[in-house]
Amino acid sequence: MESPHSLSPSSSSSYSSDGVTFDTEEPRTPLAVRRALQLINSGEPHLCLQAARDIRRLTKTSQRCRRQLSQAVGPLVSMLRVDSPESHESALLALLNLAVKDEKNKINIVEAGALEPIVSFLKSQNVNLQESATASLLTLSASSTNKPIISACGAIPLLVEVLRDGSPQAKADAVMALSNLSTHPTNLSTILETNPIPFIVDLLKTCKKSSKTAEKCCALIESLVDYDEGRTALTSEEGGVLAVVEVLESGTLQSREHAVGALLTMCQSDRCKYREPILREGVIPGLLELTVQGTPKSQSKARTLLQLLRESPYPRSEIQPDTLENIVCNIISQIDGDDQSGKAKKMLAEMVQVSMEQSLRHLQQRALVCTPSDLPIAGCASEVSSK
């Protein structure tokens, strides 16, 4: 994330600050680090501002500089408290770079009192400042030590507000920060209380399904559907289950694992309640593919979910032998046997025909319910064409 105030290493060969000449051709030398520390500790606002920009540049790609400049954390945090938006953003970006891949700096930044001003910046009308604050919390929340402290500072409701109203970049960082925070047990209930699922679903609908954003959305949904409130919120949200199914079909391996995990959790919690909403979104082809091409966890979860979706509340005698449910049943039993690779290829070939037939029926059904009374014609066309 670049800032218009940053100095790139290639911008000039030297520059002067109060008569002191700095060499920018070798930004990672100990001399550059020492000078940055001298400036940040000078107490002079304009020198501190220059130091913050230098620290950001020095630590952008150098882990060694992050360690050497750890002493700058305290003065940089002090800059977050002065009445200067320019200082706020420069200090935030410097702290952000200091924290990347450095657990000690993450903890030291929080211990130095950075959370109070950073959390307050989440409410800023300055888009750049809000984005920088959200990115900072994303990085700081990667530390298990910081997770409960960040929650205790009231960051979670504000991150959900950013997820609702922020810029595209801020929304993506907010959902990743919330996903990080959700791995601490006491934070998950706090997140759930903010009713974030409508905003997560909105982001999931619009982002690329193979993106890191989609992965974190699905990870968060998987955690939230452990609770009845989360399951109800997802099924109540228009296109909520469908968005998860779409990730299951075209997401990264990790995203698909989270997606199938979320759907399995729902079906295991109350199969009668959630079986139809899941089936209605055309999940079967994606699940069949996962049983062969997913991660080991995805394969296991996909098989289990297929079994749950296959089981009918009606007597077996009422199920026609050529239904998709019976095809799925046969596929599962064969995959569990020997020679999985050869059989999988044959089954995937059969699946293509089944998938095409199911997808056509699915599109026809959705076209019927997509009427002018509940959706604009343009929205309906867009929905169908996105399949």
Automatic annotation (TrEMBL):
Question: InterPro entries of this UniProt entry?
Answer: ARM-like, ARM-type_fold, ARM_PUB, Armadillo
Does Hydrolase show up as a keyword for this record?
no
Would I find Plastid among this entry's keywords? no
Q: One Pfam annotation, family name? A: ARM_PUB
Please report the residue spans annotated as repeat (ARM).
113-155, 154-196
Q: Where is the U-box domain?
A: 52-312
Q: Where is this region: Disordered?
A: 1-27
The alphabetical list of record keywords is: Repeat, Ubl conjugation pathway
**Top-level taxon of the source organism:** Eukaryota
Query: Which residues lie in Low complexity bias regions?
Result: 1-17
Spell out the PANTHER family in the cross-references. Answer: ARM REPEAT SUPERFAMILY PROTEIN, U BOX DOMAIN-CONTAINING
- From the Swiss-Prot or TrEMBL record, give the protein name: U-box domain-containing protein
